[in-house]
Amino acid sequence: MRLRNWQQELIDGFPSILAQHRRFILKAPTGAGKTVLASEIVSTFYPGRKILVLCHRLVLLEQLERALGANHRVRKLEVGDTEPPFQDYDILLSTNMRAMDLLEDAIPMADLIIVDEAHRVSPNGKSYKQIIKRFEESGKPEAKFIGLTASPERRTGDQKDQLSLAFDAIIDCADIETLIADGILVPPIYRPHFVHDMDLTGIDISSGDFPVATLAPAIVKSSMIDYAMVAYAEERGKVAPRPISAWFCPDVTVAEATLARVQALGVSAAIVTAKTPIRERMKLLASHETGEIEAMVSVGVLAEGWDNPHCNIIVHLRPTLSKVLWGQTVGRGLRAAANKTQCVVIDVSSNWSTFGPVEKLEWELWSHRRSFEKYKNRFNWIGQEQSREDKDFSYMLCEQKLASGLRCSHIYRKPIHVDSQCPACGSHVAADIFQEQNFEDAPNEISIRRLFLDRSRALHQEMNQSVWSAMGGTAWKLAEPREKIFLAFCMAFANVSAEGTESESDFWNDVMAAETEIRRFLVDRKIQMTKQNGFDISTLADAMLAGRHIRTVQAQYGIYLCGEVLETCSSLEIERKYSKAVKVAERLAVLGCSARDNLPYFNAAEHLAAE
Ligand SMILES: [Zn+2]
Question: Which terminus of the chain is less hemmed in, N or C, by CB atoms within 10 Å?
Fold first, then answer.
């Protein structure tokens, strides 16, 4: 099989990746051909060796079985299997939940472990915690643990459950824009409409996303489905060779309401959900592939492991706070196919104005706690675009009243100083979103940093250091919760590596090394840290100036800790240490610290026992 450019490049560079990393993610967009890549890696670098492939869904397992089975001796693990692994085959395929005992036996024998849809790896979840631990403790020294995914970021803000605890690097194999240029993917063309009567602002998002139970009835009551219909009726006539669409809904009530409306347009349509029996689902999806069913309305099943290259319209009725979900669902429509030149993305869920186009999404091995909160502002992306220095455009919201009584509400980009019309309805009546919306100012982090660095250096020079060097015990013992975080920040600033980092995972390794040191220090001295909402950076300013929250003893001792760094390190090193120390303080604040801690990288009981 002839490899694609990106696959060949990756294979060519693979030996040097193997030399550098033990657990890493290969990132490539949906539809890029990750399964073929995995098969090629096995053929080229691991012929006849023992390989364990883990994935999360049966559908994927079957795809992998087909792809790998063509050239390798493959066995799919069945529930209740008890035979020892790798008896008369080289590749063992399994979901991570099946027959954990057998997986425990297989891991020390494996030369390579591949995890598909690796963003689902939960480093603190029951099965993966066990798998990773087993691999670290008993895996062959030269064995590798490779994750495959298009979106290497956890949807959860849980700090014990981030991908960087499972993998130490992301290898960026290809991005959407490159693959569009190579003809492997087609460009997405966005058609966003803002739905005025769908108010998401009051919904409780403490779970990390809009809860379906609140979201679904609000959608049905709003004009969201009306907007989807207007746009779909227009777009389906414009796509070539014929319209084949995938619709994403949050639940069955929205899906059923949508289905009825799609059918009323005279379009053949069907619903698939997680409850659709697998055989029926396969049948429906096969009819969708041929276009016999034009519109596939789905709930929660098409985001992964489904692939219909002929799909050329995506309709999004699922407002979310998950960048991963947005990226995955749109990715489903981008596979190239004969006579397909683009994929229209009709977005009535405000996901486009929240996250931006999927080809611009960026991923982080570490997703911060409550990082999803910024997506509460459903114009987040547009607000971000506002701050671009080279900005020569505005985002407009079309206010034209349509014959149906709806406002057009199409969101489009208009060059500044150019008089242009709404591409959806041709009207000139539109509001400038930049001017209309109040975008929150970024908190004044820069000025706080400057204040802290300048002021603490000056105070350190004035202080009697021999006095303060002896005050550590007192400062910690009397500290209030917020003062403890301040002291932890200062300790981290003093101790964390000043080295530059070349990747996000290097950065986090430094942060976690410093965090672990502080945890040891605290646990040894029986100092507890209670969980807090986060690390409020204004604490630093308070310690330097007001002393409302950080009293003199703690402030002065903290300054004493930071002083040497401020006087001996270069300004670049100071900047690096500062930004890492902020993350350490944030983590300690959010996770707390006690003798009962059992984090993937720090077990307090084991530490105390080893003393
Ligand atoms: Zn318009």
Answer: C
Query: What spacing in Å lies between the alpha carbon of 435 and ligand 1's midpoint?
Result: 18
CB contact at 8 A, 376 and 201: yes
Q: Which residue has tokens 């976690």?
A: 512
Q: Over 80: is that where the pLDDT of 527 sits?
A: yes
Q: Cα of 191 to ligand 1 centre, how many Å? A: 11
Q: Could you read off the pLDDT of 252-310 as tens digits, one per residue?
A: 999 999 999 999 999 999 999 989 998 999 899 999 999 999 999 999 887 666 779 99
Nearest 5°: CA angle at 600, between 365 and 145? Answer: 60
Predicted local distance difference test score (pLDDT) of residue 304: 66
Say how many Å lie between the CA of residue 226 and the centre of ligand 1: 15
- Å from CA of 424 to ligand 1 middle: 5
Q: What is the side-by-side strand order in the sheet with 112-115? A: 74-76, 91-95, 51-55, 112-115, 144-149, 23-27, 169-172
pLDDT(398) > 50: yes
> What is the 230 CA–ligand 1 centroid distance (Å)?
12
Ligand 1 centroid to 411 CA: how many Å? Answer: 8
Instruction: Give the pLDDT confidence score for residue 442 in this predicted structure.
Output: 45
- Quote the pTM value: 0.73
Angle CA(104)–CA(599)–CA(105) in degrees, nearest 5?
5
Q: What is the pLDDT of residues 467-510, one digit of tens each?
A: 998 999 999 999 999 999 999 999 999 999 999 887 777 888 89
Strands (E), 116-230: 144-149, 169-172, 188-192
* Tokens 């940093």 -> residue: 449
CA of 422 to the centre of ligand 1 (A): 5
How much distance in Å is there from the Cα of 396 to the middle of ligand 1?
Answer: 10
Question: What is the Å distance from ligand 1's center to 229 Cα?
Answer: 15
Output the CA 397–ligand 1 centroid distance in Å. Answer: 8
3-state DSSP call for residue 245?
strand
Question: Rounded to the nearest whole angstrom, what is the distance from the C-alpha of residue 427 to the centroid of ligand 1?
Answer: 5
How far, in Å, from the CA of 231 to the mean position of ligand 1?
A: 11
Beta bridge partners, 51, equal 91, 112
Compute, in angstroms, the gap from residue 423 CA to the centroid of ligand 1. 7
**What are the φ and ψ backbone dihedral angles of 22, each rounded to 5 degrees?**
-110, -40
Q: Are 163 and 153 in contact (CB under 8 A)?
A: yes
Q: Is the peptide bond before 277 cis (omega within 30 degrees of 0)?
A: no
* CB neighbour burial string for 314-338, b if at least 16 within 10 angstroms, e if fewer: bbbbbbbbbbbbbbbbbbbbbbbee
Could you tell me if 322 and 300 are in contact, meaning their C-beta atoms sit under 8 angstroms apart?
no
Main-chain phi, psi angles of 465, to 5 degrees = -65, -35
Give all domains of the chain, ordered by start, each with its CATH number. Answer: 5-181 (3.40.50.300), 187-352 (3.40.50.300), 379-440 (no CATH), 445-610 (no CATH)
Residues forming beta bridges with residue 442, ordered by sequence position: none
pLDDT tens digits, 339-350: 999 999 999 999
Contact of 94 with 103, CB cutoff 8 Å: yes
**Cα-to-centroid distance, 308 and ligand 1 (Å):** 31
**CA 393 / ligand 1 centre spacing (Å):** 17
| Cα(174) to centroid(ligand 1), Å | 36
Per-residue pLDDT, 152: 86
Cα–Cα distance, 88 to 65 (Å, whole number) = 16
